[in-house]
Write a structure and sequence with these properties.
Elements (H helix, E strand, L loop, with lengths): L34 H26 L5 H32 L3 H25 L12 H78 L3 H21 L4 E3 H19 L3 E6 L8 E3 L4 H10 L8 E10 L2 E8 L6 H9 L1 H14 L4 E8 L2 E9 L16
Helix pairs in contact: 1-2, 2-3, 2-4, 3-4, 4-5, 4-9, 5-6, 7-9
Length: 396
């Protein structure tokens, strides 16, 4: 792009100026196309070209004032930066979606028109260029510059176009990925909600059966159980659709549930809870312990006539949370094992652990002694306030 004179016959020590073929400007994706940064990047690119050419001229023995080099290059790329930013600003949708003949029909004439605009402004800004030519009219200077710069101008324009085009494809890809992730999360949340809806009626049905049985034995105890069930239902409603709650809230629910069961089993139920203070804010799935404790009553406490011990504890193991429910009784008989496999409670817990934590969550059942059964739940240890990954990312 000759800017200060005729490159074909330079003369030593002449105050001439020229520059090499323009290269593709490095553009940012459309989402980051703030005009200050975008146009500033063009100007910086022009400064770099000017510095390169000025140093080359000095090596070749031509003495050109650096102000001429830097001024002409900076203004030219400032104009191109504005033109390309306007193209991206107003034609972004067309550039992203149009194809084939429509693109050629619009963008080819536009590229030539943009070159005419840039050269018109440039020639008007620098009436003294080219320096090593006899005085020329404005039209002659325009024809000279336009002829010399047309190829480089088209390179700049189409480079900007393809950068915009590639950035648009990238944005569309990201939008599709985000939409798919949102749909996946919504599907997982719907599955979690369905599991919660399955668990609550199951719990309510069993509780009402217990109260119904107590009505024939101890009306006052049944009345107390009904009040406690009302408190449990209130807690459930207050939590709304929350899938994850603090361990403190879960233990509060379990304590109410155990108090309700005391009316039914009396002194033969011996319970203990061991929850370290540092784990009170650990995040756990809502109603994760209730099905395990209920299972302990159905298959353990209810099967024995004598005292039965029930232990509930939580422990941390580095970045893992370990929840344990141990109950005495008859142990894992073939009948109880089959009933647990077919029951809603444990299957529900397994499904929710899988949805929330994938392979990082697990549930296991084992015998730990004569007649003692332990249900173990392992899940990632996350405290309230921690920045955690989206819990439903394992939903599909």
């Amino acid at each position: 792009m000759p800017r200060s004179g005729d490159r074909e016959s330079p003369t030593p020590d002449a105050s001439t100026e020229g520059h090499s073929t323009a290269q593709e400007p490095a553009l940012r994706p459309p989402a980051l196309l703030h005009p200050v940064f975008f146009i500033g990047a063009f100007v910086l690119l022009g400064v770099l070209f000017a510095l390169q050419e000025w140093m080359n001229f000095r090596q070749w023995g031509y003495h050109i004032h650096p102000a001429i080099e830097f001024e002409s290059w900076s203004v030219e790329f400032l104009i191109w930066g504005i033109v390309c930013w306007l193209m991206g600003r107003f034609l972004q949708r067309f550039i992203a979606r149009a194809s084939g003949l429509r693109l050629i029909a619009l963008m080819l004439p536009l590229s030539i028109g943009a070159s005419i605009v840039v050269e018109t402004i440039y020639v008007s800004c620098f009436p003294h260029l080219p320096l090593n030519r006899p005085p020329m009219t404005w039209r002659a200077r325009f024809a000279f510059q336009f002829d010399a710069d047309l190829t480089d101008n088209l390179v700049i324009f189409w480079a900007a176009f393809f950068v915009f085009r590639g950035a648009a494809y990238y944005q569309q890809l990201r939008e599709r990925e985000l939409k798919a992730a949102r749909l996946e999360a919504q599907l997982a949340e719907a599955r979690m909600a369905a599991l919660r809806m399955q668990l609550n009626p199951h719990f309510l049905f069993n509780a009402m059966n217990s109260i119904s049985g107590m009505m024939r034995v101890d009306v006052n105890a049944a009345d107390s159980m009904l009040e406690q069930l009302s408190s449990l239902m209130r807690l459930t409603l207050e939590r709304g659709d929350a899938q994850v709650i603090s361990l403190r809230e879960e233990i509060e629910f379990i304590e109410l549930y155990l108090d309700m069961q005391k009316h039914r089993y009396g002194s033969r139920m011996q319970q203990s809870l061991s929850i370290p203070a540092g784990l009170h804010d650990a995040q756990v799935p809502a109603l994760i312990l209730q099905p395990l404790v209920e299972n302990a009553f159905v298959h353990g406490v209810a099967k024995c006539a004598g005292p039965v011990q029930l232990k509930i504890e939580a422990r941390s193991d580095h970045d893992r949370l370990r929840l344990s429910v141990v109950n005495g009784g008859t142990g894992l008989t073939p009948h109880s094992s089959m009933a647990m496999r077919r029951g809603i409670g444990l299957a529900n817990v397994r499904d929710r652990l899988r949805l929330l934590y994938g392979d990082q969550g697990s549930l296991a059942i084992r015998e730990t002694g004569a007649g003692q059964v332990q249900v173990l739940v392992h899940l990632p240890l996350r405290l309230a306030g921690d920045s955690t990954e989206q819990l439903t990312r394992f939903g599909v």
